[in-house]
Amino acid sequence: MMKVPYAPRCRRSLGGALLLVLLLPAFAVRAGGEPYGEAFAREGASWPEGRPPAALLPPLPDGSEAPAEGELEALRGRLAALEAEGGPYAGGLEEPLAALGRALAARGRYGEAVALYRRALHVLRVNDGLYGEAQKPLLAALLGIYRAAGDFAALDEQYPWFYRVYGNGQPPLTGLRLDAALAYQRWQREALRRDLGDGTRRLLALLDDGAELLDRAAADPAAGWDARRALALSQLNNLYLLEDRVAPPPEDYPGLRAPDPFQRNELFTGDPQQDRLQAQRRTAQADGRRLLEELAAEAPDPLARAEVLVALGDWQQWHGRESAAAEAWQAAIDGLLRAGEAVQVAALFSEPRELPANGVFWQPPAAGAEAPGPVVAARFTVTERGRAREVAVETVTGRDSARIGVARALRRMRFRPAFVDGAPVVTEGVERFYEVYD
Length: 438
Description:
Elements: H1 14-23, E1 40-42, H2 69-86, H3 94-106, H4 110-128, H5 136-149, H6 152-165, H7 175-193, H8 199-219, H9 225-245, H10 272-297, H11 302-318, H12 322-338, H13 342-349, E2 353-354, E3 375-382, E4 388-397, H14 402-412, E5 415-416, E6 419-420, E7 423-424, E8 427-436
Antiparallel strand pairs: 1-8, 2-5, 3-4, 3-8, 6-7
Helix pairs in contact: 1-14, 2-3, 3-4, 4-5, 5-6, 6-7, 7-8, 7-9, 8-9, 8-10, 9-10, 10-11, 11-12
C-alpha cells in the first residue's frame, strides 16, 4: 500500500468524512486526534486563530459610518485640486486618496476602494521609499478590504508585502514587529485551511519561518519570554496542521515493516519537497513536546509555566498519550493552586474541553453566508481518559444527516477531561450544541 502523500484538502463535510472513514484501510489510523473545529464546533465558538488581530489590522467601517454623497463629492474635489496643483504623485495626495477609499469601503464599493488605496500606497512609495512607515495603516486597510470582499487570493498576494514592511521577522522581535510576524504566521495557516496556492510549498515555508523566528527570538536580547512563548505556540499550531494534513510515515502504519535504510524505499515519493515534509511529519510529535517542555522550564513564574503545561497536556492527549497528558495537567493545577489561582483552575478544568482547544483547524463560516449551517445537540459522557462515550446526537436545525457525522467524530475526538481535587474524573451528561460547517 502506497503512503498517502500530502495533498491540500478542502474542508471536509461530515458526510464526506463519514464516507472517508468507511473507505480508509483498517490500518490507516490517525496519529493525532480528530481536527476539532474543522467540520464543526460549539455554537458561538471563537478563537483568535480565526481572524487577524484587530490591534494590527483594524476592521473596516461598516455601513453606519458611510458618508453622504455630498461628503464623497467634497473628497473628490479635494483630491482633484491637489492633483492639479502637484501632479499625480504629489506628497500628501495619499491622504485624500485613503479618505475616499475608506468612505467607499464603508459603502461596500470595494473595487473602487481597492483602486484608491493601491494608488495611495504607490504615492507613498514614490515619496517615502518602498518600506516607509506611513504606508502601514494603508496596507492594513487594504488587507481589510480584500477580506471584506472575499478576495482571499488578492489578500494572499498582499500579505508578504505587509510582512516585509513590518520587518520580515527580523530582530528586534518586539512590539509591532512581533505582532506582524505572528499575524503573518496566522494568515499562512488560514491560507492552508482555505486551500490557497501550493499547499506543500506553503506548509514547508510556514514551518521554516516558524523555526527561524524561534531561533531569532532566542538570540535576541530584546525578545523576552513572552515573545518566545507566543512564537512557540504559533509553531505548535503549525505542527498541528502538519500532523493532520500529512499522512504518517509508512513505518507508522501497523503491519508495515520499517524501510530498509540501504535500499530505496518505493513508499517514498522521490520528490524533495514531499520527502522533506514527510521527514518533518515523522518528528512532529516529539518536536512539539520538546518545544513546550523547554518553554515551561524557562517560564518566569508559576502562572506562565502552568499555561504552557496545559498546552503540553493538550498536545500529549491529542496524540493519545493519556498518562503523559494527565501528568502535565496535574503539574499545571498544582502550580496554579500554589499561586492562589483556584479560579483559573476552575476555568480550565471544571468541565471537559474538546481538543485541540486553540482553533487551529477552525475556519469560521463567511460573514453574510446565505444560510447558517446545521445545528445539532449532543449528549455524552467524557471518561477520565478524555474519550466520549454513550454519545447521543440529534438534529436541531438543518439537514438531519449532520448528526451522524458529529456522533462519529465525537467518538474519535480527544478531550481534556474535568479534574476534581487534582485528578481526572468521569463527567456524565455533557451537553453541547454544535454548529456544522457545510
